[in-house]
Design brief:
This protein has 149 residues and is mainly beta. It has helices at 69-78, 142-145, and strands at 2-10, 19-34, 37-43, 48-54, 59-67, 84-93, 96-103, 111-117, 130-133. The chain has a single domain (2-148), classed as Hypothetical Protein Pfu-838710-001 (Beta Barrel).
């Protein structure tokens, strides 16, 4: 499966008055982090996922599998993996659903909005709360944000 994703910093708090259609708490850790591949464990409110991402840039291959939450937490604990903690808000803007991550802990104050596309050249309306695009900046990959913890 291919993932085509654009990523932006959040410029202001006006997203808080936008149409939020849901939110969830996320904890994620990485078993493998390289420039062109990563293996992630993500635990949410009610499920856990094992994800493999291959490639770099706008379009990457993504393979995702649901795993038992207790096993995900055990893997994280036994491997002593640092975890990103964030609240993900799902914001409706026109026909698009943005995923806006509010990071916690050492990354408190960092807000990143992502939009998944069906093709690289797809047009989308930019909400007024979007800031600088960081799609191609590896410093803003979640797998690299772990280094800031």
């Amino acid at each position: 499966m291919k993932e085509i994703e654009r990523k932006f910093l959040v410029a202001n708090d006006s997203w808080k008055t936008a149409k939020c259609i849901g939110q969830r708490e996320l904890k994620q850790a990485y078993l493998l982090r390289e420039a062109d591949r990563s293996v992630r464990i993500r635990v949410t409110d009610n499920m856990a996922l094992f994800t493999i991402k291959l490639g770099a840039g706008l379009t990457r291959s993504e393979f995702e599998y649901e795993i038992p939450i207790d096993e995900a937490n055990e893997m994280i604990e036994e491997a002593k993996l640092p975890c990103l903690h964030k609240t993900r808000f799902y914001i409706q803007n026109g026909n698009d659903t943005w995923e806006l991550d509010v990071f916690h802990g050492a990354l408190d104050g960092l807000l990143i909005a992502e939009l998944e596309l069906t093709e690289e050249a797809q047009f989308f309306e930019k909400p007024n709360w979007l800031g600088e695009e960081v799609t191609f900046d590896p410093a803003y990959l979640n797998s690299n944000l772990i280094d800031r913890l």
